[in-house]
Specification:
Length: 480
């Protein structure tokens, strides 16, 4: 009988190799996720974690760097668990552009597997490294550490390309090294519990799903508002900008799941097929879709710096967009004619990430002109789902007013462990579950939607970004 290696669950004696172990992503996200899975009893304690980076570090230094970012366990006894967890960790120092370090890493891995009696290795390689060295590391991995007699999985962090062509170049570069089913391309927003919840809310509640269409929905809004800027991250953010950072990936994922047709099954490929089908119905974006673009300057009181004042922004004439608002359409039977507004910005007046489904006004019946309903799934600052309903207030006067039907997860599940995005995604990789990872054809279509817009906004005829104060609502041209 042939075993489907794509869905084999990694359990005992799995090898997890973290490249870029000394970096910010590893410190703030990957290590805390691994510890969370271990401390909650999800990760088998026989797992071996190899950390690889160029820096001269010890395991204790790695622990010191990441400890403050690790969540307390729901069962307590964190110090003992941290002690036990870091006994599973080994650090290997090496360069990324020569075989020497990879040969050393292979020796460490094979010694561990021999000691444990492993005959069919299960290995996960996590690339928490800059995109320009993805293919270099992948090539050295394939030549030196790939388990021909086992199962290998490779987790690749975003950004996966800068546009359609560079994304395809990366895909072509990986193709001779790893099969597509071996590559797990991360968009950490897909690991959020909220997106799984959005699937359930839509398709497990027929009364709601029946009204999510052009007959009932007036407008869809997807917001990403941050109250802080790019402080200290200018080296990363300046060549990327707000569209590549959050719109082409995170916000598009939210919108896709909120608007796609119901998958034929609750299975990885069925879900991803439905997403790609929806993306193919989205219009290609260009100049006509732009509502407003901007770059933040000093706050009105002068206390908070402008984008260009950041020491890590080297180009002091940079036109990098820290704010963009666009409108877009989905050209299919369900959504044709429903305007979609996508807004993302830094250094704004609030912290808010959410999708809003605004219902049409009721023009007839007993209550014509009543305030329309609105359904909201919020990701930040709180995880919650609410819908505004119209009803009458207590008393003798039948005045209508709106009340929210609200489920705030921090209240409903206050004592439960809710996995963070990276915890879920790493766990999914152990399980061989690719539903929350990005497939090549999905990546292709999403870049095809946004690349013409990026070419326009970064080209010679692009409008100058409007300057807006740090802490404001953004540029003046935004839709109300």
């Amino acid at each position: 009988m042939t075993v489907d290696t794509q869905t084999v669950e990694f359990k005992k004696n799995t090898v997890f190799v973290l490249f870029g172990a000394s970096g910010d992503l590893a410190k703030k996200e990957t290590f805390p996720a691994l510890f969370g899975l271990f401390s909650e009893g999800v990760m088998d304690p026989s797992t071996k974690i190899f950390c690889y980076a160029r820096s001269n570090l010890t395991v204790q230094q790695l622990r010191d760097n990441c400890a403050q970012y690790c969540r307390p366990s729901t069962t307590g006894n964190d110090k003992a668990k941290m002690d036990q967890f870091f006994k599973m960790v080994t650090y290997v120092q090496g360069n990324y552009d020569t075989d020497v370090g990879f040969i050393k890493l292979r020796g460490e891995i094979e010694a561990f597997e021999k000691e444990r009696g492993v005959t069919e290795p299960h290995r996960i390689f996590y690339l928490a490294i800059p995109p320009p060295i993805f293919l270099t590391v992948a090539s050295h991995l394939k030549n030196n550490v790939y388990a021909e007699n086992g199962i290998t999985r490779l987790i690749v962090e975003k950004p996966f390309g800068d546009d359609l062509e560079t994304s395809r170049e990366l895909q072509r570069g990986f193709k001779p090294l790893f099969k597509e089913e071996e590559i797990f391309k991360i968009d950490h927003f897909l690991g959020k519990d909220d997106l799984k919840r959005l699937l359930a809310v839509r398709f497990a509640n027929p009364f709601l799903g029946a009204t999510w269409n052009k007959e009932y929905i007036e407008q869809i809004e997807v917001w990403f508002k941050e109250p802080f800027g790019a402080e200290g991250r200018g080296g990363y953010f300046d060549p990327v900008g707000i569209i590549r950072d959050v719109m082409q990936n995170h916000l598009l994922q939210i919108l896709t799941i909120a608007t796609m047709e119901e998958p034929v099954a609750y299975e990885a490929e069925a879900i991803r097929d439905a997403k790609v089908q929806l993306l193919k119905c989205m219009e290609t974006l260009g100049p006509k879709n732009v509502v407003a673009t901007g770059q933040y300057t000093n706050s009105l009181d002068g206390k908070l710096p402008s984008y260009l004042d950041d020491d890590t922004v080297l180009d002091k004439n940079s036109k990098c967009l820290t704010f963009t608002e666009i409108t877009m359409d989905i050209k299919n039977e369900r959504w044709a004619g429903v305007p979609i507004v996508m807004r993302a910005g830094k250094s704004l007046d609030e912290d808010r990430v959410e999708i809003r489904m605004k219902y049409k006004k009721n023009a007839y019946g007993m209550f014509p002109g009543v305030t329309p309903n609105m359904f909201v799934i919020q990701f930040h600052p709180e995880r919650k789902i609410y819908m505004n309903f119209n009803t009458t207030a207590p008393g003798f006067v039948d005045n209508l007013h709106q009340v929210p039907l609200d489920m705030t997860y921090s209240k409903k599940y206050a004592n439960d462990w809710v996995p963070e995005a990276y915890e879920r995604l790493i766990r999914d990789c152990f399980l061989g579950n690719r539903a929350n990872y990005v497939r090549d054809d999905e990546l292709d279509v999403s870049w095809a939607i946004f690349t013409p817009l990026l070419q326009y906004l970064e080209g010679p005829n692009a409008p100058a970004p409007e300057i807006y104060p740090y802490g404001s609502t953004g540029p003046k041209g935004i839709l109300e």
